[in-house]
Specification:
This protein has 6 helices and 9 strands, in the order αββαβαβααβββββα. By secondary structure, it is an alpha/beta fold. The chain has a 5-stranded mixed sheet with strand order 4-3-2-5-6. A two-stranded parallel sheet has the order 1-7. Strands 8-9 form a two-stranded antiparallel ribbon.
């Protein structure tokens, strides 16, 4: 059995750890609350933009856009692919980063099965953890650690504009995004979506469908193509920012839960060690009393 000094030292160590995990939980909880506010403020704009684009795409007027894959078109064979991966800059958030890295590895295997070599995969790593992981896999990622630490609208738009420009010029044939979708404080799901090309079937409504009482067959000036051409970049940029906001909220939700579990485990361990300390102390006192009684009887 460990000595009283060792048990007392361990109790002090666990109490110190408990204070750290409790503080980290409070910080992550505050950041999560801020991230939820950011998402709630963004959702009305995102919904309105999606409705506008959906209504235009559902009309019968023909249009062209370098970012949209029409229903009668087949996706081009993947030649050069870009992958935007969202993770955190630090650990202590459960399986948050592991799930992202695992999904990225699964995507790489799928691309290899299609005949895309590793050197034709451009990785945009938003977060230090996924950046370190892909470097170990011998990729050379573009680093965006600052976005994982603090979401920035302008920086995300610059990243989206760069990717869209490469896709429109034919340098990229496909773009994927891997991130955590924030459903609730307890549930965050890893998502892999095709960012480009944008499939019209995912936005197009049924013929003669209405949205908020308005028909979707508009007369547009100067033309539908010009309106779509101006809306699509905005939609794609907003979509990437939504993924970043989702990932940011998911990270702090996962860390809040992980630190709560760690704090609870530390408190349980402190109770067990305190009981062990009291038992050991009682045994030591009993042994001393027996020695005193035995000495006085001689």
């Amino acid at each position: 059995m460990a000595s009283l000094k060792e048990i007392k030292s361990r109790i002090g160590s666990v109490k110190g750890t408990s204070k750290v995990t409790s503080a980290m939980k409070m910080v992550s909880s505050a950041k999560l609350h801020k991230a939820q506010g950011m998402i709630n403020a963004m959702l009305p704009y995102q919904k309105s933009l999606d409705d506008i684009v959906s209504n235009f795409l559902s009309g019968e007027t023909p249009f062209t856009s370098p970012y949209v894959l029409r229903e009668d078109e087949k996706p081009a064979a993947a030649s050069r692919v870009a992958v935007v991966v969202f993770s955190s800059n630090s650990s202590l958030c459960g399986a948050f980063n592991y799930n992202i890295i695992r999904e990225f590895m699964a995507l790489v295997l799928d691309l290899k099965a299609e005949g895309v070599p590793d050197e034709n995969i451009d990785v945009y790593a938003v977060g230090k953890k996924v950046e370190d992981a892909v470097r170990k896999m011998e990729f050379k990622p573009y680093s965006y650690q600052s976005l994982a630490a603090k979401p920035d609208y302008k920086e995300v738009f610059a990243l989206a504009s760069n990717i869209m420009e490469q896709y429109a010029s034919g340098k990229l044939s496909r773009v994927y995004v891997i991130y955590h979708h924030f459903k609730s404080s307890a549930v965050q799901k890893v998502e892999r979506l095709t960012y480009l090309p944008l499939e019209i079937s995912s936005y197009k409504k049924e013929k003669n469908a209405t949205a908020d009482g308005w028909l979707n067959n508009y007369i547009v000036e100067p033309s539908v193509s010009q309106v779509i051409e101006s809306l699509m970049p905005q939609l794609l940029k907003q979509k990437l920012y939504t993924c970043l906001a989702d990932s940011y909220a998911s990270e702090h939700a996962a860390r809040t839960i992980a630190m709560q579990v760690a704090t609870d485990n530390a408190e349980d361990l402190i109770q067990e060690l305190t009981i062990l300390y009291n038992k050991s102390r009682q045994q030591a006192i009993t042994a001393e009393l027996l020695d005193i009684v035995a000495g006085s009887s001689q």
